[in-house]
């Protein structure tokens, strides 16, 4: 996510001439900032700006030992950047679509990626002073990469039925904290 900090600790097998450098392997490279170091270990950080491309990005490092031998473009692994909130795939399935007082409504939907926590659903009528009605998660299906969820809610308890169409709010948060 934007403004998240990536920290890398680099350890060398011999004393270094200078602190090593680490970068995101992009063009131009995005250089990490040295936080602390000693002769063989360094901690470097990088703050995600949001203008990096989404996806898996390699980390590369460089170091020079005391004899002047340089190691360049050393692979240090990778990170995955994700700035996109999860999306509902297809449409919300609402059964039944016409309800009376105390009717139970089933709402089902799928999302396009793994979620950090179960989604939340609220049903409300525009302009209704009564708080939104919270849905209860009753089923999760599909695989972790594209799960489907089913909720039940009583949108119109006796004496509280709102007139006309209701709004359904779905709140989802993906594994890195992007919300929709």
Q: Unreliable segments (pLDDT under 50, ≥5 consecutive)?
A: none
Order of helices and strands: EEEEEEEEEEEEEE
Task: Give a count of the beta strands, DSSP E runs of length 2 or more.
Answer: 14
Approximately how much helix is present in the residues? Answer: under 10%
Shape: rod-shaped
Q: How many individual helices?
A: 0
> Which structural class is indicated by helix and strand composition?
mainly beta
Oligomer: single chain
Q: What Rg do the Cα atoms give?
A: 25 Å
**What is the distance, rounded to the nearest whole angstrom, between the alpha carbons of the first and last residues?**
14 Å
Largest sheet: 4 strands, antiparallel
**What's the mean pLDDT score?**
91
Provide a descriptive summary of the structure in words.
There is one protein chain. This protein is 0% helix and 48% strand. The protein is built from no helices and 14 strands. It has 180 residues and is mostly beta strands.
């Amino acid at each position: 996510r934007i403004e998240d900090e990536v920290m890398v600790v680099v350890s060398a097998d011999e004393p270094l001439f200078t602190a090593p450098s680490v970068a995101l392997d992009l063009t131009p490279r995005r250089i990490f900032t040295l936080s602390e170091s000693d002769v063989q270990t360094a901690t470097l950080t990088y703050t995600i700006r949001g203008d990096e491309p989404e996806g898996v990005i390699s980390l590369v490092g460089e170091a020079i030992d005391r004899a002047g031998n340089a190691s360049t473009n050393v692979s240090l692994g990778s990170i995955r950047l994700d700035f996109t909130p999860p999306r509902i795939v297809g449409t919300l399935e609402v059964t039944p679509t016409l309800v009376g007082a105390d009717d139970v409504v089933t709402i089902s939907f799928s999302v396009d990626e793994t979620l950090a926590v179960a989604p939340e659903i609220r049903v409300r009528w525009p302009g209704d002073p009564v708080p939104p009605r919270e849905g209860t998660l009753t089923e999760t299906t599909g695989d972790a990469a594209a799960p489907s969820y089913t909720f039940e809610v009583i949108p119109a308890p006796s004496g509280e039925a709102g007139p006309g169409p209701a709004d359904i709010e779905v709140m989802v948060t993906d594994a890195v904290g992007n919300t929709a």
